Amino acid sequence: MPNVLIVEDDRDTREMLERFLELEGFTVSSAENGRAALDMLQRDGGACVILLDLMMPVMNGWEFRQAQVRDPRLSTIPVIVVTAAGRREQIPAIDAYAWLPKPVDFDRLLETIAPLCEGV
Description:
- The protein contains four helices and five strands.
- The protein has 120 residues and is α/β, with parallel strands linked by helices.
- Strand 1 (3-7), helix 1 and strand 2 form a beta-alpha-beta unit.
């Protein structure tokens, strides 16, 4: 079963995404900040995709992404930014596979994740 990692500091948003993806047949892991997510990935292995919030305490989305791409075992995992931070053009580059605004459109989320997790 494909594993999706959710990196989101807002507990309600994190739990809502977890429940939705589990109902759609995904295995879901989650972390409340980038540092916890990196620790989890380095300990437990990869995911087919990472859903990444940008503005979080401890280690934000930009810091997480910088650390992720420096780690050869993790650098190939695609990242989908899920943020309420504003429009993509207004946000500093992060080299993400896709960007989704909050509140999340679940149909669009599934359309974006599906090709990344097929055959995993």
